[in-house]
Amino acid sequence: MRRKLIAGNWKMNGLRADGVALAAALAAKxxxxxxxxxxxxxxxxxxxxxxxxxxxxxxxxxxxxxxxxGQDCHSExxxxxxxxxSAEMLRDAGCRYVIVGHSERRTEHxxxxxxxxxxxxxxxxxxxxxxxxxxxxxxxRAAGRTLPVIEAQLLGSIPQDGNNHADALVIAYEPVWAIxxxxxxxxADVAAAHGHIRRLLRAALGAEAAAAVRLLYGGSVKxxxxxELLAVADVDGALVGGASLKAEDFLAIAAACP
Length: 258
Fold this sequence. Notes:
Blueprint: E1 5-9, H1 16-29, E2 44-48, H2 54-61, E3 66-70, H3 87-92, E4 97-100, H4 103-108, H5 113-125, E5 129-134, H6 138-142, H7 146-157, E6 170-173, H8 187-205, H9 207-212, E7 214-218, H10 223-230, E8 237-240, H11 247-255
Parallel strand pairs: 1-2, 1-8, 2-3, 3-4, 4-5, 5-6, 6-7, 7-8
């Protein structure tokens, strides 16, 4: 059984007081399980704050079972890369995961599949689990190219070092047209995309590894539609944007996991 993962991407939101308060509200509801064991049937929770909030949020999360993640990382370990942050730095800040290839990075910063792959490989080398994002635009969807687009992105973006087992890789399908628009993909849309991704992973990684990799859906996930989306076959959780900025909404999405 793949344990569900509910990941919150705070994006460029929150000052120190905001982030600490939100993390504290979540941590109060999710104290650490005894002996570090997963709660029976409960999803894994992850929050990815802006980089300047990682250390204070990590302090707040100590004693809870909520994981910490970064929103991006550089493909290099160190060097003259002003304004960037490496995967090792994220690990040092207490992170366990990092998002790579989000559509906002691909669009606003011109990141291509090769760069996303390099970042994912850097994350794995640093001991982080990359959450590799893929998804089609509205124009690509209208042209009937959803599956070819996500196929090219997936195969071009996942690491090629043979380390893509269950604990080292997560895939997030986020149709670009659904991110922040309030318009979510239908369960049928999600089922088709996730089924295709699982088939591609089987061909690329082998049946055993592919069966263990978690596939998240992202794109206007909220309490009102979470149960329906999380019940779809091959949906192993959600990558949540705006709804992760309210503790009650984020926890309600987690509670909707079947």
